[in-house]
Automatic annotation (TrEMBL), chain A:
Protein known as: Sarcosine oxidase subunit gamma
Domain of life from the UniProt record: Bacteria
Regions that span the bilayer: none
Source organism (scientific name): Chelativorans petroleitrophicus
UniProt GO molecular function: sarcosine oxidase activity
InterPro entries from the UniProt entry: SoxG, SoxG_het, TrmE/GcvT-like
GO biological process: sarcosine catabolic process
Automatic annotation (TrEMBL), chain B:
Highest taxon above the source species: Bacteria
The UniProt record lists the keyword Lipoprotein: no
Domain SoxA A3 residue range list: 513-593
SUPFAM superfamilies: Aminomethyltransferase beta-barrel domain, FAD/NAD(P)-binding domain, Folate-binding domain
Family: Belongs to the GcvT family.
Residues in GCVT N-terminal domain copies: 610-881
Name listed for the protein in its UniProt record: Sarcosine oxidase subunit alpha
Entry's Gene Ontology molecular function annotations: sarcosine oxidase activity
Alphabetical UniProt keywords: Oxidoreductase
Organism encoding this protein: Chelativorans petroleitrophicus
Pfam families named among the record's database cross-references: Fer2_4 (PF13510), GCV_T (PF01571), GCV_T_C (PF08669), Pyr_redox_2 (PF07992), SO_alpha_A3 (PF17806)
Residue span, Aminomethyltransferase C-terminal domain: 901-986
Keyword Oxidoreductase tagged: yes
Domain FAD/NAD(P)-binding per the UniProt entry, residue ranges: 172-438
Length: 180, 994
């Protein structure tokens, strides 16, 4: 048997650091597109070990695992330990759809005092702490592509985009980061 | 001559910081903080340009963004040559190079000025009347000639090397304009902690306090108060101050466009720094503090260099320390120009006379001017001026008293009153109201959450302006942000009033050229003529005369034009109408609007996980939507034809490896997944066994083919759907749309997995041998895994979905692995493939091989008017199905009528001839033109495997014509073809089973 294939993330080797801003590809993570009606939320929450949020723009986290509310019946579930999320959900009989998108998405970590400003080069949302507090998440746009934006700290965001758009997203953020 | 008009002790610039610059090649000196205009004036230079139509010498009219005359080119380097820059807003920097425009051979001697002699010919509507006929001559003769003769600067001919940026911003209160009103508003609004953005177009905030010498706010001189206020605001974390930033557009829902100029004032900007930044601001409340614009007087020859606005002369003196002349006169019909006379006189400039059109002006300002020894000629008019390149004499008369005088001057300051800058208010769709008493248009009914304060609201004095600003800022913050605000009070005093004055032509403007619109060379006479020729609405007058249609959008001229037209029509001004204010307020560069979206960031370029390998192996790529796809893999010495022929041969003889990662993929999951599939596709799905695949066709409601693809059933409640590469997003939208609107009762969800999987197609007789060593946990024998089946297992040690499918007609597999493993798995397959003589192939070979088998490509062999039956795919419609999207469309009479175009094969009689895709087909090549076209070629290739050309075509009644000969007329010959089946290779379809 051939040895297991090597994983090559699309942004391998990319990074940018400037005054008040750092851009870094996030390490690989497990991701699930989870769809379910409200009635299945308790069972799925229990299986995943976190309380799937029901409020728009909100997230729930438990250790390395998090669930981002994307729609009334939709969550992006991430796990940074690489847990087998589809198997976790397979144990749940309540109605749902769990689809592995670990490789579909790419994470980019945007941090520093200028993080908000740099993101606002392409994202039209109000990212002030009052409006987009720590823990807020939203499916939105950056320039010409769709992203999921998650505020993980006062000066830290995680941007999730599709794999083939990651070069565009990183390059746009880098262009904005280069302007002082 | 070195800054001989700079007055010691006047202005705010430091005499120590000198800068050098050139204008038309001549070197001058200026000071840091100068604009190009103030620096030129400091050197006594008034002549800066030639007018648009008559090439008349023109000087500097204003000290701001409203400037119609002083347009110059700023040349930084070969690529950075900006035309039509207003000298009044261009800040001076060391080494600045400016050139004049629209003159030849030189500014002081311009041959184009001969147009001026022919002025009677160029009257209003001249272009419309003269260049009507012949029509063709407009494009070839008239327009190029007019463009050469009349024009502004020359557009740069190199790509713009600068960077531009964009920011989205939100705030509670956006204040546009940083004068007394705007600063007061921002100060009050930010007290409570509301987020405030204050934008001002100039390098420093302060607005009219720049020139309003007597203003005192909070016990300090106005300008000093402004700068202290700016410092206070800057110290507040909730305030963002944007200088050199013009609010140019007011859009729906309190979205405003601001453009910030970041480097145009710098001698050597950081190459990484953007030149301009577009701010797209969404504000809860907007405070408009955009001030007012002073108008000139309309009298004969009012356009000579040296004739300028009174407030501009004050700005040059009080801020820049520059006297605009040594012996000046003032011509006005309102009060505020008196202050200009006083300011200049105080600094030692001789004010030869103050001519006031009004019969008996009164008030302290009149007394003060008289007390300063300045002669006030009340009830007098300026009836003409003299001086070729600079005004040198003013003709004054009071006809009713029989007075005629000539006064020697080197500058003439004029003011007919102030026009509130209601541009942004009007852009917000707010209704302007005409104020009868002052004869001005003022903000009337608001339709957005905005408020206008100060001069743009018609307020004439400083104390009220400041009070309005404070209260508006307070209210805006309270409404947008809440919380308690401290009620601020500011004591503001100024003797000045910005009155409406008079609009229209002054007496005597009928004779000679009394300019209304300087930039488009429109005179009072032109406007009168327009009315005489039947123009009744200002919109018609505007288009007939072009008044207000220049790059300054008539900031100084529109009200004059309107008043003259109203007078001619004997109607009140509001009945003649007001032209629409449209964005942008001042010209905005395309760069600012484009922002980051150029070059690499113009559009995302999507690459597959295998892209790098393909690149390293010499692939030539083609664009498919945003994707880069490997087109073919030429080896040394091969052209495209040779490479594709080799790839085609190799796939059928051994095997080929193909990157199919861009195929759209959608995972359809839920207990009603099969029911949903039944509704979205023509095919039956309920009975498709788990582990099996089916080729599906999706229709639009009208019955025409929308997309196709192979679908695998992974579980009772889970389908792996594939779509065409280009169709992926719209197919998902189409499905989601139907799910949400037509079939919301179905328990099923759709997830795009296009990018989750890298897809490696291995096609050809050796395909199974190639993948066998890499596959784990799946029996890939023909018996266990027949054509059109799918299994889950491992390939190269990583989880995989393995499809036994074929788009080539050969035994084939498509290995789906998580995308990050794509390249490594590809490399492993490649290594195995090498052992069996396989090659990598690209999209061109894929196209040829599928055409050999008669497989359609949606969008190439279909065009949105092709039904499954037309395409020979009626077998894919579930006969017993009661419903699916498009089922009723398929029953439409025209879709079941005989004579439809059907997909067939074409073989050229000469096997070496390859047809052109898109070529039309006729039955009889000898019929008269226009011939009856009975179809067209949709796909056409050289088929190496068939040893001849092959083609697919849509032909009327095509299937009943098989065996017939038809003709393809081309420009140089007629090609004879035989109609055949769509399958050219392995007609029995045995190879796919191995």
């Amino acid at each position: 048997m051939a040895e297991a294939a090597r994983r090559i993330p699309p942004l391998e080797g990319r990074s940018f650091e400037g005054q008040g801003i750092a851009l870094l590809p996030a390490p690989p993570a497990s991701r699930l597109s989870l769809r379910a009606p409200e009635s299945s939320r308790p069972a799925l929450s229990k299986a995943l070990g976190l309380d799937l949020p029901a409020k728009p723009k909100s997230t729930a986290a438990n250790g390395a695992r998090a669930a981002l509310w994307l729609g009334p019946d939709e969550w992006l579930v991430t796990d940074e330990t690489g847990a087998d999320l589809p198997s976790v959900c397979a144990t749940v009989t309540a109605l749902h759809s769990a689809v592995d998108i670990s490789h579909r998405n790419v994470g980019i970590l945007v941090s520093g005092a200028r993080a908000e400003d740099v993101l606002n080069a392409g994202c039209p949302q109000d990212l002030s702490l009052a409006r987009f507090p720590v823990g807020a998440a939203s499916r939105t746009v950056l320039g010409k592509v769709e992203i999921v934006l998650w505020r993980t700290g006062a000066e830290a965001f995680r941007v999730e985009c599709w794999r083939s758009f990651s070069d565009y997203v990183f390059s746009l953020l880098e262009a904005a980061a280069r302007e002082n | 001559m070195s800054q001989s008009f700079r007055i010691a002790g006047a202005g705010r610039l430091s005499a120590a910081e000198t800068l050098s610059f050139t204008f038309d090649g001549k070197a001058y000196a200026g000071l840091a903080g100068d604009t190009l205009a103030s620096a030129l004036l400091a050197n006594g230079v008034h002549l800066v340009g030639r007018s648009f139509k008559y090439h008349r010498p023109r000087g500097i009219l204003s000290a701001g963004a409203e400037e119609p005359n002083a347009l110059v080119g700023i040349h930084r380097d070969e690529a950075r040559k900006t035309p039509n820059v207003r000298a009044t807003v261009q800040e001076l920097y060391e080494g600045l190079t400016a050139v004049s425009q629209n003159r030849w051979p030189s500014l002081s001697f311009d041959l184009g000025a001969i147009n001026s002699l022919a002025a009677p010919l160029f009257s209003a509507g001249f272009y419309y009347k003269t260049f009507m006929w012949p029509r063709a001559a407009w494009e070839k003769l008239y327009e190029p000639a007019i463009r050469r003769a009349a024009g502004l600067g020359t557009a740069p001919d190199k790509p713009d090397p600068d960077r531009y940026s964009n920011r989205f911003a939100h705030c509670d209160v956006l204040v546009i304009g940083g004068g007394a009103a705007g600063l007061s508003a921002a100060l009050a609004a930010s007290e409570s902690g509301a987020s405030v953005i204050l934008a001002d177009e100039q390098a420093e905030m302060g607005g009219a306090l720049r020139f309003e010498a007597g203003a005192v706010i909070d016990g300090k001189p106005g300008w000093e108060w402004a700068q202290e206020t700016v410092a206070r605001l800057a110290a507040r974390g909730n305030v963002r101050l944007l200088t050199r930033t013009t609010g140019f557009g007011y859009y729906a829902q309190n979205m405003l466009g601001l453009v910030q100029r970041l480097t145009d004032h710098l001698a050597s900007p950081d190459p990484d720094a953007p030149r301009e930044r577009l701010w797209q601001v969404r504000a809860k409340r907007v405070v408009l503090a955009t001030g007012a614009i002073e108008r000139h007087m309309v009298f004969p020859d009012n356009d000579r260099p040296g004739i300028m606005l009174a407030s501009a002369a004050r700005t040059y003196l009080n801020h820049y320390g520059v006297a605009v002349g040594r012996r000046v006169a003032v011509y006005t019909a309102e009060d505020s120009a008196y202050a200009a006379a006083l300011d200049l006189a105080r600094k030692g400039v001789t004010v030869a006379a103050l001519i006031d059109l009004r019969a008996s002006p009164e008030g302290p300002h009149v007394e003060a001017v008289r007390a300063a020894g300045i002669e006030v000629l009340a009830g007098h008019a300026v009836t003409g001026t003299e001086g070729r390149l600079r005004v040198r004499r003013v003709c004054v008369s009071a006809p009713d008293r029989g007075v005629h005088r000539e006064i020697e001057v080197d500058a003439l300051l004029t003011s007919s009153g102030w026009t509130p800058a209601v541009h942004l208010f009007s852009q917000s769709r707010g209704k302007l109201a005409f104020d009868e008493e002052t004869q001005r248009f003022l903000p009337g009914q608001y339709v957005q959450d905005a408020v206008a304060v100060g001069a743009c609201n018609g307020t004439m004095d400083l104390a009220t302006t400041v009070e309005e600003g404070l209260r508006a800022g307070e209210a805006a913050a309270r409404e947008a942000h809440g919380g308690r605000t401290r009620k601020l009070k500011l004591d503001a005093r100024s003797a000045e009033r910005w009155s409406a004055g008079m609009a229209g032509a002054a007496p005597g403007a009928g004779a000679g050229m009394a300019f209304v619109d300087f930039q488009n060379d429109v005179t009072a006479k032109d406007i009168r003529q327009a009315v005489r020729e039947g123009m009744r609405s200002i919109e018609h007058v505007k288009r007939f005369t072009t008044t207000g249609m220049a790059t300054d959008q008539g900031k100084t001229s529109n009200l004059h034009g309107l008043a003259i037209a109203a007078e001619m029509l004997d109607k009140p001004i509001p009945e003649v109408g007001l032209t629409t204010f449209r964005p942008p307020y001042t010209p905005v560069t395309f760069g600012a609007l484009v922002g980051h979206a150029r070059g690499k960031l113009f559009e995302p370029t999507r690459r597959t996980p295998i892209h790098a390998w393909a690149e390293a192996h010499g692939a030539v790529f083609e664009d498919v939507g945003q994707w880069k796809r490997a087109w073919y893999f030429p080896q040394a010495g091969e052209d495209m034809h040779a490479a594709v022929a080799r790839e085609c041969r190799t796939v059928r003889q051994a095997a080929g490896i193909f990157d199919a990662s861009t195929l759209g993929k959608i995972e359809v999951v839920g207990p009603d997944a099969a029911r949903f599939m039944e509704l979205m596709y023509t095919n039956p799905w309920e009975k498709l066994a788990v582990g099996r695949c089916r080729y599906g066709i999706m229709l639009r409601e009208d019955g025409f083919i929308y997309d196709d693809g192979v679908v695998g059933r992974l579980a009772e409640d889970r389908f792996h759907v594939t779509t065409t590469t280009g169709g992926a997003p719209r197919v998902l939208n189409h499905m989601e749309d139907y799910l949400q609107t037509e079939f919301p009762h179905l328990k099923v969800w759709l997830t795009s997995t296009t990018e989750q999987w890298a897809v490696i197609a291995v096609q050809g007789p050796k395909s199974r041998d190639i993948i066998a060593p890499l596959v784990e946990g799946i029996d890939i024998s023909d018996a266990a895994m027949p054509h059109m089946s799918v299994r889950e297992g491992r390939v190269c040690g990583v989880p995989a979905r393995l499809f036994r499918v074929s788009f080539t007609g050969e035994r084939g597999f498509e290995i789906n692995v998580p995308a990050d493993y794509g390249q490594a798995v590809w490399e492993a397959v490649w290594a195995e493939g090498q052992k069996h003589g396989a090659c990598a192939y690209g999209t061109e070979t894929m196209h040829v091989l599928r055409a050999e088998k008669g497989f359609i490509i949606v969008g190439q062999d279909t065009d949105g008017t092709v039904t499954p039956d037309d395409a020979g795919l009626a077998w894919a419609i579930g006969r017993n199905k009661k419903d699916f999207v498009g089922i009723r469309g398929l029953r439409r009479p025209d879709l079941v009528a005989p004579g439809r175009r059907q997909l067939v094969g074409l073989k050229t009689v000469d096997p070496k001839t390859v047809l052109e895709e898109g070529a039309q087909i006729v039955a009889d090549p000898n019929q008269k033109v226009p011939m009856k076209m009975i179809g067209f070629v949709t796909s056409s290739y050289w088929s190496e495997n068939c040893g001849r050309s092959i083609a697919l075509a849509l032909v009327e009644n095509g299937r009943s014509r098989i065996g017939e000969h038809l003709f393809v007329p081309m420009p140089n010959r007629v090609i004879e073809v035989e109609v055949t089946s769509t399958v050219f290779f392995d007609e029995k379809g045995e190879r796919v089973h191995g």
